[in-house]
Amino acid sequence: MNTERDSETTFEEDSQPNDEVVPYSDDETEDELEDRERAVEPEQNRVNREAEENREPFKKDCTWQVKANDRHFHEQPHFMNTKFFCIKESKYANNAIRTYKYNAFTFLPMNLFEQFKRAANFYFLVLLILQAIPQITTLAWYTTLVPLLVVLGVTAIKDLVDDVARHKMDNEINNRTCEVIKDSRFKIAKWKEIQVGDVIRLKKNDFIPADILLLSSSEPNSLCYVETAELDGETNLKFKMALEITHQYLQKENSLAAFDGFIECEEPNNRLDKFTGTLFWRNTSFPLDADKILLRGCVIRNTDFCHGLVIFAGADTKIMKNSGKTRFKRTKIDYLMNYMVYTIFVVLILLSAGLAIGHAYWEAQIGNFSWYLYDGEDATPSYRGFLNFWGYIIVLNTLVPISLYVSVEVIRLGQSYFINWDLQMYYPEKDTPAKARTTTLNEQLGQIHYIFSDKTGTLTQNIMTFKKCCINGQIYGDHRDASQNSHSKIEPVDFSWNMYSDGKLVFYDHYLIEQIQLGKEPEVRQFFFLLAVCHTVMVDRLDGQLNYQAASPDEGALVSAARNFGFAFLTRTQNTITISELGTERTYNVLAMLDFNSDRKRMSIIGTNAVDLNLADVGVSSKMWAASCGIWVAALRVVDAQHELLYLRTPEGNIRLYCKGADTVIYERLHRMNPMKQETQDALDIFASETLRTLCLCYKEIEEKEYEEWNKKFMAASIASTNRDEALDKVYEEIEKDLILLGATAIEDKLQDGVPETISKLAKADIKIWVLTGDKKETAENIGFACELLTEDTTICYGEDISALLHTRMENQRNRSGVYARFVPQVHEPFFPPGGSRALIITGSWLNEILLEKKTKRSKILKLKFPRTEEERRMRTQSKRRLEAKKEQQQQNFVDLACECSAVICCRVTPKQKAMVVDLVKRYKKAITLAIGDGANDVNMIKTAHIGVGISGQEGMQAVMSSDYSFAQFRYLQRLLLVHGRWSYIRMCKFLRYFFYKNFAFTLVHFWYSFFNGYSAQTAYEDWFITLYNVLYSSLPVLLMGLLDQDVSDKLSLRFPGLYVVGQRDLLFNYRRFFVSLLHGVLTSLILFFIPLGAYLQTVGQDGEAPSDYQSFAVTIASALIITVNFQIGLDTSYWTFVNAFSIFGSIALYFGIMFDFHSAGIHVLFPSAFQFTGTASNALRQPYIWLTIILTVAVCLLPVVAIRFLSMTIWPSESDKIQKHRKQLKAEEQWKRRQNVFRRGVSRRRSAYAFSHQRGYADLISSGRSIRKKRYPLDAVIADGTAEYRRTMES
């Protein structure tokens, strides 16, 4: 018995994933899945189910209740949730958005609490408390307090500035206005004042403030057109439609104010494409779905006004639910730095403990027997050792660098400003600069392994352009004049002769214009005529100009192209379409629209050649036009005041079908006698090799009798109560055959400038790019070729291919996991043989199938409310563990396989799947990831990745607001990573290595000094020197190096992307580098202490005075230390500027200036207890012997470093060293040239399919007449009556 199968099953387990559809919604419930497929249930299950059904029913899914125009309803006690102790708040969120962290009252306590959560800050707070205890303090309290206040203050100011910016952004959104019903009237209200149940009015171009139920609008049947760019990055419009009952009764202000509808619907969730609910009004219930809901973030378009009822507000809206959790992001260096600080803590404790033991031993052996050391206390040696332990914790506290964190923050802040100020990442067309929206991740930009990119609006401009076409076997679109002569440089075609031209199309083939105007080849005009009539585009007139709204950008591009070439679509009614053919307006009857979907990959239109002419204008011109098309006029006339309707018949019949679609489906349906079939095939190969999106056009003459028989089947399928879509598709198949091929179009899905070059450079930097998109597989594959992620030499694997590979791997792993598994070492076996370039293209459905992420439904054994046995519980737990282990192993195998591919494209994926793919790579590859997108559907992915980048363009700001960095064009990514990211990583690594070095060199002098002072925790320096060492004497040079240093210029960084790999491999900062810095500091401190010690032993100054007192010794060591560490940073600096040089020598001068001031008699008189080194500096430093000692100490510290650097650069130079050595010979100005594709005519088998919209088009809307304003088209009724009369006449 298989317990896994018994416990839970997978939905449609044996079905093949559908590549064309986006998988189920992210939050589908088990009950929703259960409803999809009802199996025959056993008798016992039926009895159990009936027993459950007899209980009191409870609606699990529709628990969200909304009452229109009644705010008090939502404040009832059973809608209140306990927030904190007895404080309660409504479960209905208000509409205010809050992204800030603090307010005026919480800033100080919360910020201090967050800062003291850092181990180093808390450690220094404890030190400050210890220094207040007289028995153990060895340093003045200000030596810790001053640096701690500086650190806390700088960090607090930075956090305050960031939070003020968040407040401003929140206020800007929350204070937007719209009209809300208050006191039975529409009044202006701010977004933050809107509540669930409010009725609001929105106008054209308004943003939608909440998730609302559409009640009515200014359009016919209360249609409302919305732009969803904020959600999915698409600028083509979607339509929503209100219920008929609300459209009929809720148009006026008083009826809207009196509206008291009650709604029960699903709880707030992240399903953008799904909504389930019921409206109860007028003693009737009305079902609600996603087509009646307007989502927050969308924009009202082409609709003068609309009214809606707020269902979800604020944080409950779908766009906010879909944003995912806000994750606190930290860099890899942050984690490493924390571990190193913990290591230093351990070292500090061990050193203090060792020295404390030494002091206890010294006290027992020497201290107790030295009368002159008696301090009046009779403490035991062990107790004195215990006190000295804490004393050494205080003395050696600078091993843990308190200023490290604040210095890191300052450097990151400066690097962020450099990104903001980079003019080469500024996009002047949109006036959009690059923006570092966080200051904590800069160096991680230099460590990226994987980039996850959206397609629409990120790689592409989401702008489709008509580039070429093939008509009757001839290709048009090259640079040619009217005489068919090719020219490399030629002026674009002048479309000024066309009154309907929009002036946006750039076309260079003058010969095509010549063919259209002369009309010698009827197929040319027929080609553009087809584009003008076979579509579902909606048209509107704005300021006298035609404005097209298409279900997909491709369709809009084709209709616009036909418009520019003289065949302009003007208007349509329920059953007619009007176009301008080279200046002559004609209206055609539309008998049927065969809409496209993802399975059909084509659309067709069936119509009669009816022409709407003015009576006075029926003359030679129209007759000549008809004759040129081989058409003669037939015999029906319907007359009204100014128009007559003529049916145009061809010799074979008067009905024609026009069809356009993907070549893969069109070629299967062509008539076997198509003379231009091969020529068009060759043209398609050429278009595909140029990464253009292709589409085939064809037509068919239909006899009257054939159409009548088909129409009966069509009408029956249209009213089918079950499986209507399948029935319609079957009927469509019957008529769409034996087609005559006209030609093919080629559309360019315009990439953003520089996308291929950017991807190529990033690939040379060993960064892998994965494209995650909701688009169709063919579209995504085409973009892969266009941006050169894929080439003709790439072997492409699909979901079905890798599913078999993964299944085989799982079987092998299961076989090896038996008894002998512990004796067999784990071996990583590649999925593919070595050599060759491979890419993976996988759809969301296959992704769920492979990763075992398909929704699970409960087993058919209903679980009643009685306790199970312990054995059943144990078996179920084991079963779940096995399933989880299998799922985890399968996911790891998938990641391993995908990472063996040079490129991965995931298409038809949901926002949750995008985030899941990013998380899988993070989890199983431990790699640094970057996600880049432009729409709300990318927000979850952006938040999941280590670094999120938002594209700020025409597609909205939702992704930008959730991102860490933003800019306007994808090409700026190469500069962000290869220049700013690499520089930031190198600077931060140098800074950290140097910082640890200088603190170890400074602090460990106390350690060596302990061996000569009885381990008494006596300091080797003056207290004020200890206080100011990290604050003034050594801070500025290291900060400037962390801000300004660069090994090579930005141009060379872009020219040699291979320099980037040092960050990916963590070569510049790791535990090995840390211990090298530690050892360097130890050796430096050893030299700093023992050379002056040897020089001071048994010496006398020139004036007969002994310079070997403690204070002079402290000044000598301190002076040698300051000169050494500042010169050391000079050796580490690669990019010298005046500022760097000034900071190094200025810090040394500042040290001597402050030291002479602090050692003067005047300040001692004012503060005798704080300044006790009176006259030490002037007395000691006037001795040449002291200066020689300082010079010798500095030389011994630095000369070995210089020698090692010279040998390493000579014998083992890095790639950066080689470029620096020859940078004068390198021509940094040379532009990188895009590699040329190897073009092989006729070899490419790649197909670029038509990009149908993700939903059906507007055909149902048009055919039903719901989108038509009847008052605008008074002839509708006349035409319909005339058509009916004509059909009755023909039947008789």
Automatic annotation (TrEMBL):
Binding site for ATP: D454, K455, T456, E555, F596, K660, R693, T773, G774, D775, R908, K914, N937, D938
Organism superkingdom: Eukaryota
Subcellular location: Endomembrane system; Membrane
UniProt entry keywords in alphabetical sequence: ATP-binding, Magnesium, Membrane, Metal-binding, Nucleotide-binding, Translocase, Transmembrane, Transmembrane helix
Keyword Transmembrane helix: yes
Keyword field contains Transmembrane helix: yes
E.C. numbers: 7.6.2.1
Positions of the P-type ATPase N-terminal domain: 68-145
A Gene Ontology term for the protein's cellular component: trans-Golgi network
Listed transmembrane segments: 116-133, 139-161, 339-362, 389-408, 991-1012, 1024-1044, 1074-1098, 1110-1129, 1141-1165, 1185-1208
Composition-biased stretches (Acidic residues): 25-34
SUPFAM superfamilies, A to Z: Calcium ATPase, transduction domain A, Calcium ATPase, transmembrane domain M, HAD-like, Metal cation-transporting ATPase, ATP-binding domain N
Biological processes annotated in GO: Golgi organization; phospholipid translocation
Region (Disordered): 1-54
UniProt family annotation: Belongs to the cation transport ATPase (P-type) (TC 3.A.3) family. Type IV subfamily.
UniProt xrefs under NCBIfam families: ATPase-Plipid, ATPase_P-type
Protein name: Phospholipid-transporting ATPase
Organism: Balaenoptera physalus (Fin whale)
Lineage of producing organism: Eukaryota, Metazoa, Chordata, Craniata, Vertebrata
